[in-house]
Amino acid sequence: MNWLLTRLFGRLPIGWLQLSHNKGRLFAAVAGVAFANLLVFMQLGIMGALNGSTVAPYSIIEADIILSSQEGNTLTDSEHIARVWMWQALGVAGVAEVSPLYIGNLPFTLADGSSVSLLVFGVNTTQPDFVSETVAPMLSQLLLVNTALLDAGTRGIPAAVFDQLKAGQPFSFEASGETLTAVGTMNIGGGFLADGMMMMSDQTFLRFFPARSSAAPDHILIRVADGVSAETVAARLADVLPALSVRVQTNEAAQAADLSFMSSERPTGIIFGFGVFMGILVGLVIVYQVLSTDVADHLREYATFKAMGYGQPFFLGIIFEEAIVLAVFGFIPGFFASMALYAGLGAVTGLPVTMEASRAILVLFGTLAACSVSGAIATRRLTKADPADLF
Amino acid sequence: MPNAPITVRNLNHYFGKGEARKQAIFDVDLTIERGKLTVLMGPSGSGKTTLLTLIGALRDIQEGSVLLLDQELNGASEGDLAALRRRLGFIFQAHNLHESLTATQNVLMGLEVHGKGDPTRQRVASHHMLNLLGLGDRLDYLPGNLSGGQKQRVAVARALVANPEIVLADEPTAALDKEAGHTVVEMLKTLGQVRGTTTVMVTHDPRILELADRIVTLHDGRIVSDKNSIAD
To answer: Which of B84, B93, B116 sits opposite A10 (nearest CB)?
Structure first.
């Protein structure tokens, strides 16, 4: 390490030597930075899961443009929209096909007494173009009333149920006083709103949600004609439809809007964002404390170096060297501990908590930046190193 | 004839502000010749250490002039002062070694201040200096594992390894036994004779007074005597 750093800096690695000389303090500092990293990683992981689960339902629908109520918040947290706008949309140039999408939350109780909440998507089974390629082949099975496709990532349902479904054997259960039969699986995963998802025909949907009307779906899905831009058609639709009640968004814009809403409007997004801030703050304080104590402990040595002719850049270099060592050494255990916790959290909750390379890089550079900021603040103490006091 | 490396004129220095302001140095004039071992003596509080720090560019000159290696210190920038200090060697009463660095690394610090050099040559020079001071078997020891005398010898090696033009020392032999103290002072004398290194030293050690080329005594911030040897 000494050899490597000496080659890297072109001088003795004083910062590293100082840190490694006091192994107890180094361990505590690295543990502190690792803990701060862990906090940030966990908050970002859960935020990522929140974002992932927010846009996950988009993976089972195929639409270029989505019409929604202006009063709705996201795809799964929506208000009803009048179906009449669907017919009007059909008359707009560039619109090839339209389909209603119904969404509801269906709770039911398993045989062992545990309750599961499913987010249900009611779709027109005669329009396979509006569901994903993986789901489309199974859509015909939903023509039978009271049948559904069950999300294999649903929390709380025994694995044996999915094994049974994958083996081609249906699984029936009671919900809202009706018998519902799962005839196949799809893969989405649980989110914050429900334990999992389910897809059924719009007719079955209306049987399980008798208060709902076929005239008021949650969204209207639109496919545009080949060679026509979704943005162009969306603009045309926005001109035709009443802006006060109907929101017109391309699929991508709808996903971006959902993410924005969840991160800035929902308390969960704000709380996790605050958690990230707290993690960074904890890291800043820990590193500042370590570095400023280190500077205070070495004031006489620094004063000696000043007397010898070393300038301010040399001292700043030492402190930033320490900051970088702490950042890198703290990041590594923080990263691996986070990976382990992600795996545990994902297994327990079914949430898509995964370590993304971009997140790891972001946190690494964030840690380097935070440690450098702490180092910059700690350098203020250097002014107390007066070589004249040495005599 | 080359200029004297240290020329002090009408030097006054004060500590404190307002009513608490107290004068420590009074109108000092002093010229120190090249290659000589000059000792500053005087009772505690006489101003000898203050004078040493003023000569060493460690304090701002408030009144008067200090010409150090042909450069005026009064009004010099911090950068200029730091550059000037690189041409000096400081030996402190307390060794002030860096606890995290080995003896060799501490001595290397005296070379690295001059910029990047050949690491192998720098290491050889550091080892040579430590060998001269009898520390050849302690090259990789941390200060915590050295005796007080050994630490002081490492500090001396650090001060001398870059061949400074002037050595400023504050009681350098206080922590050394008779033999080690003699070795250090002999080394400084030899450097003066061979390389023209000028040494200014604050000390009460009679062993050094015998070897001094000049003894300047201060009292209450004023030079009260200036002799060529203790016998004068």
So the answer is: B116
